Amino acid sequence: MQSLLKSFAMLSFLLLSSSRSADAAESSLQEVDCSSFSSNILEVPDQPDLVINTIINPNEGTLKAQFTYEGQAWLSLAFTDGSSAMVGAEAVIGLPGQDPEKYSMSSYQNAGVLPMSAELQTLTDSSITQNVTHTVLTFTKVLVEAGEHPISATSEGVFLWAVGSGNGLSRHARRGSITFRPAQCAVSIAGVLQNGEFVGQVGGSSPDDNRSLWVAHGACAVIAWAILVPLAIGSSIVRRALESFGLPPGMW
Asked: What mean pLDDT comes out for the span 140-161?
């Protein structure tokens, strides 16, 4: 009887530990919800007809950007070494009716604004759409590419933006720069809150994945300690009585 009580006490301890561990694992994980660009809107000063949205996926090492203009024109977002100078920047330019491309800018003149070579055209999910009221440039760009200005996933950076005077590539009607701090998305981050800010390691298991593992662990513990262990102890206690019914010695 004493052995049975010890077994049940151990079972209770294991189940309680499993439950607490599952809760701890889930509370230490945070999934950043960036299902829409609304989570990181960049306000363009004194430009109410412009909206820039950015999201960074640190697992993939990419930046997803969307530039919306209330009007009809070509659009561009460019990346620099931290300055606001156009010359030397690398731009993504969207010309309505064509696929957006990466451009190098070596001059203020059109002759110095040229598409990069085909092997450097690494944009994905890129498009430029237009209706009677708006033009929208969307693209995904790798954060760090050889020979290009890197985009930081954690610190502030500078965007150059430009709006054309029409759909064909020509001198811009407006341009400017904006400092932005990227938001990370679509990944599970293992860590804790420190001083109101979440810190941790990108790429941890999701809360749902951990929960299923702990449930499986608890189920195995229940089977082992609630069924198998008491059965073994009970069989040991009554083994001599079972042998008297004709069961061979050692059967139990």
From this structure: 89
**What whole-number distance in Å separates Cα of residue 238 and Cα of residue 200?**
55
| CB 232, CB 9: distance < 8 Å | no
pLDDT digit string (tens) for 194-250?
A: 444 444 444 434 444 455 666 677 778 778 787 877 877 777 776 666 666 666 666
Alpha-carbon span 151 to 204, nearest angstrom: 23
Band of residue 107 on the pLDDT scale cut at 50, 70, 90: confident
Distance CA 159, CA 232 (A): 70
Q: How many CB atoms lie within 10 A of CB 159?
A: 23
Given pLDDT bands bounded at 50, 70 and 90, which one contains residue 137? very high
Element (H, E) at 182: none
Task: Say how far residue 73 (Cα) sits from the centre of its chain.
Answer: 32
- Per-position DSSP letters for 204-252, written without gaps between them: PPPHHHHHHHHHHHHHHHHIIIIIIHHHHHHHHHTHHHHHHTTPPTT--
Gyration radius (Cα) of the chain, Å = 31
CA distance linking residue 127 with residue 146, whole number of Å: 24
Cα torsion for 121, 123, 129, 134, to the nearest 10°?
-110
Q: Give the chain's largest Cα–Cα span.
A: 104
What's CA 241's distance to the chain center, in Å? 64
Query: Is 50 exceeded by the pLDDT of residue 26?
Result: no
Q: How far apart are CA 162 and CA 151, in angstroms?
A: 19
CA distance linking residue 137 with residue 100, whole number of Å:
8
Cβ atoms 219, 228 nearer than 8 A: no
Place of tokens 């077994």: 7
